Amino acid sequence: MKRVAGAAALALTLAAGCATVQTARDFGGMAADGGSRPVATVAAENYGYYLFGSIPLISGSPKYPNAVSCRLFTETVTLQNNLDMIAQTVKAERGSKLANVKTTEDWSGSFSFWIIWRRTLFTSAVITD
After folding, report:
1. Residue 43 CA to its chain's centroid (Å)
2. For the chain, how many structural domains are there in total?
3. Across all residues in the chain, what is the average pLDDT?
4. Burial profile 18-36: b = 16 or more Cβ within 10 angstroms, e = fewer
5. Among the four 16, 18, 79, 82, which has the fewest Cβ within 10 Å?
6. What would you report as the CA-atom Rg of the chain, rounded to the nearest whole angstrom?
7. Which residues are CB-contacts of 103 (< 8 A; sequence separation ≥ 6)?
8. Is 49 among the domain residues?
9. Average of pLDDT values for 69-73?
10. Which residue range(s) make up the domain with 67?
11. Does residue 7 carry a pLDDT above 90?
C-alpha cells in the first residue's frame, strides 16, 4: 500500500504544475498595429491541478517561469500572474507597450473521471517600443 501511495505521489509530482514564458523576435520587417515597431511576441502559460475543480493541489510557480518549480496547495493559475510574467519579459526585452493581449482558459477533468481537474491559463501579447 505504501508503494502505491508513493508511486501516486511521484506521478503527481512529475505531472506538477508548470509556468512557462516563450518569446519570438523575428517579424520580417512588419509593423504592429498603430505603426509601432514590434520588439517580440511573448506567450505565458501557467497550469495546475485541482481537486474537484476547486481545491488547488499543485500549480506552476510564476515567480520562476521555465524552471522546474511548483507550488503546493496554492492558487497561482491567475490572469494577474500571467500578466506579471509578461511584464518581466517586457522589461527584459526593453519594450514599452503591449498590443494584441489575448488570454484563453481551459479546464479538463475527464482524464481522472472529473475528480482531478487541470486548469490552463494562456496569455499572449506583442511587445512594441
Report:
1. 8
2. 1
3. 87
4. bbbbeeeeeeeeeebeeeb
5. 79
6. 17
7. 79, 82, 121, 122, 123, 124
8. yes
9. 90
10. 16-128
11. no
Count of residues in the chain: 129
* DSSP sequence for the chain: -HHHHHHHHHHHHHT--EEEEEEE---TT---GGGPPEEEEEEEEEEEEEETTTEEEEEE-TTSTTSS-EEES-----HHHHHHHHHHHHHHHT--EEEEEEEEEEEE-GGGTTSEEEEEEEEEEEEE-
Say what the pTM is: 0.81
The region, left, alpha or beta by phi > 0 then psi within -120 to 50, assigned to residue 115 is alpha
Q: Residue 38 corresponds to which cell in the numbers above?
A: 514590434
> 10 in a domain, yes or no?
no
